[in-house]
Design goal:
Helix content is about 25%, strand content about 30%. By secondary structure, the protein is of the alpha/beta class. Helix 2 links the parallel strand 2 and strand 3.
């Protein structure tokens, strides 16, 4: 374990970068689409998966989009994962032909719960850490386990004093 704070080994993702990476994810997903080349639906894991899922759904022209909300973090501390909001299970079924999208897989705890609900779904994340990588079928970028990813929805622009004064 390191004595570093999360921001000391941070990976800052801008809106532009997230958009590019989510589009790259869509391109990869087109190549692994089910028979017939069409996904039935996209299920975004809220909240972080909503922006990437929207981009993927747009790129692949998927009109059926739903969410599953799994809480496994309390600020920066992981806890027991629990489903807070489920998708329309009549639509989703066992997940056959369904695409699940999230921003990041960290330990895989959230995806373990989601896979129990939809075992045949295809799971895709924009970013993956080694501990959770096996829970994902498709991802774009791998980062080290001790890297903290700062997503654009968690950041605010603010003035910073110049290093050498004003």
């Amino acid at each position: 374990m390191t004595d570093r704070l999360p921001h000391e080994k941070g990976f800052h993702v801008s809106w532009d970068q997230l958009h590019r990476d989510a589009r790259a994810l869509a391109w990869r997903l087109q190549d692994v689409a089910p028979a017939g080349g069409e996904w039935r639906a996209v299920i975004a894991i809220t909240r972080g998966g909503m922006a990437p899922a929207m981009i993927v759904a747009r790129e692949l022209d998927i009109r059926t989009v739903d969410t599953i909300s799994v809480k496994s973090y309390n600020h920066q501390t992981q806890s027991e994962a629990q489903v807070i909001k489920s998708p329309d299970m009549d639509l989703v079924g066992d997940g056959e032909g369904v695409l699940i999208v999230d921003d990041l897989v960290d330990t895989g705890r959230t995806l373990k719960v989601v896979r129990e609900w939809m075992p045949k779904a295809h799971v895709a994340t924009v970013y993956a850490k080694p501990m959770g990588r096996d829970m994902v079928d498709t991802f774009v970028t791998e980062v080290s386990q001790d890297t903290w990813i700062f997503f654009p929805w968690d950041m605010a622009l603010q003035y910073v004093e110049p290093y050498r004064g004003a």
